[in-house]
Amino acid sequence: MKKRTKEILAILDEQYGREYVCYLNYETPWQLLIATMLSAQCTDARVNIVTADLFQKYDTLEKFANADLKELEQDIKPTGFYHNKAKNIIACTRDLLYRFGGEVPRSLEDLTSLAGVGRKTANVIRGNIYHDPSVVVDTHVKRISRRLGLTKNEDPEKIETDLMKELPKDHWILYNIQIITFGRSICTARSPKCEQCFLQKYCKEFKM
């Protein structure tokens, strides 16, 4: 690992600790899967508001699998892109029931074979449910990894590969958790708080 990368990780550990935190509320693996699907283009805070009622109404996989499409669309409407999300949730939960015996699968291949589940969602499940080291590339990770010079790529899959080479395995999940906090509070997409930033000297975009 490069000395520079080591320093960045040490600072992140110091600022945010090494605790594994999941910002989505869930009790079962399939609830985390659905919550992560809903979080596409939506804040975790809003998803948690929606799922508080949603997981009470649909408290089993069967209820999701047999849900009325129009009704489910209304139930998840505040998360945006609700037509697509509702369709995918019904197809995904049916797959879980009929192909995987009601269990959320562990492998990247099985997870990404589910409707509406891409690599990012699959890696959230692998990291949080199975504790398999995985790199989750969301908007914060993409933006900040580029700013820190840990990748030059735009494509999430290429960024994932770069970070797997650049970061030690014990930081794969942790890095995502720390960077989400950092990206929400300091290194925001628009008007980042550069003067408050503790990683200023490592940033490729910071101008004195």
TrEMBL record:
Keywords: 4Fe-4S, DNA damage, DNA repair, DNA-binding, Endonuclease, Glycosidase, Hydrolase, Iron, Iron-sulfur, Lyase, Metal-binding, Nuclease. It catalyses: 2'-deoxyribonucleotide-(2'-deoxyribose 5'-phosphate)-2'-deoxyribonucleotide-DNA = a 3'-end 2'-deoxyribonucleotide-(2,3-dehydro-2,3-deoxyribose 5'-phosphate)-DNA + a 5'-end 5'-phospho-2'-deoxyribonucleoside-DNA + H(+). Its cofactor is [4Fe-4S] cluster. Binds 1 [4Fe-4S] cluster. [4Fe-4S] cluster binds at C187, C194, C197, C203. PROSITE patterns: ENDONUCLEASE_III_1. The keyword Protein biosynthesis does not apply. InterPro entries: DNA_glycosylase, Endonuclease3_FeS-loop_motif, Endouclease-III_FeS-bd_BS, HhH-GPD_domain, HhH_base_excis_C, HhH_motif, Nth. It comes from the Bacteria. Its EC number is 4.2.99.18. Residues 38-185 form the HhH-GPD domain. One of its GO terms (molecular function) is class I DNA-(apurinic or apyrimidinic site) endonuclease activity. GO terms for biological process: base-excision repair, AP site formation. It is an enzyme of class 4 (lyase). Pfam families: EndIII_4Fe-2S, HHH, HhH-GPD. DNA repair enzyme that has both DNA N-glycosylase activity and AP-lyase activity. The DNA N-glycosylase activity releases various damaged pyrimidines from DNA by cleaving the N-glycosidic bond, leaving an AP (apurinic/apyrimidinic) site. The AP-lyase activity cleaves the phosphodiester bond 3' to the AP site by a beta-elimination, leaving a 3'-terminal unsaturated sugar and a product with a terminal 5'-phosphate. Belongs to the Nth/MutY family. PANTHER family: A/G-SPECIFIC ADENINE GLYCOSYLASE/ENDONUCLEASE III, ENDONUCLEASE III. This is Endonuclease III. It comes from Mediterraneibacter gnavus (strain CC55_001C). The gene is nth.
